[in-house]
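Troubleshooting: if your tokenizer reports a length mismatch, compare your output against this known-good record of 270 residues.
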Amino acid sequence: MTRQATRTQQGNTQEAPDAPLLSTLVYRSRATVPMEQAALQAILQSAQARNQAEKVTGMLVYDQGCFFQWLEGPAESIARIWDSLRRDTRHTDVEVLDTHPTRERFFADWDMRLAVRRDRDDQGASRFDEIAPHLVDSLYHRPDSAPEVLAGLSPSQIGSNSAAAMPHDTSAALRQVLKTVVIPQIAARHGAARLLLPAADPRAAELAKLAIAADPQAAFDLVADLHRRAGAVAPLCASLFEPAARSLGDLWTSDDCSDLEVTLGLVRLQ
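Known-good structure output:
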């Protein structure tokens, strides 16, 4: 597929500055009947053909009768696909979890990939990508965190069954997720038209450690205190939350926290 884009170090594709904005849509739904591998394969092949024609890329997770999907591409293409998805009788209880404009693709090389829960007791080879059970569980327990969790399944993060090994740079990926998913969400909720980029708050590293503690209340108290001092949420997005996410990546790189703790920390920051 040919696109006007440049490759970033995180494995994402950033549209050229003069390219039109893309649209991102994240939703969840419930299958009307249980899906076996053959049925999932048929859904995957159909989605890949449709998305390639529409210049849309994305990721689909299926687990225990539920779908979680990330779609990205031209707004008019996303609108057409969304209209088709809402009328698809193979699933029901369709709920939008997030939609926002962007200039970056998280899944630039994937017309569509499908992932399922990793089962260490399953001796059969899965046809699909596999993701850690705790990540799948977080989709159920915190649906509002689905955009961040799915973004973390981009090619630079997912443990793929394919022969091509993907780079694994958690620190860079966390920063990218905060920059392109979480910060725009927070800014939109609080009416911030534009975010400046102030210097990192010196307490960002402290917040990262508190965010992975067994009891996160101290992290919430710190954010509340800094919020009161700043007088608004928007200034904290780039000065506190993004540096804290980078600190989480640094903690993981130095083996001071686990994959699960990084995920929980990121969700708590959001």
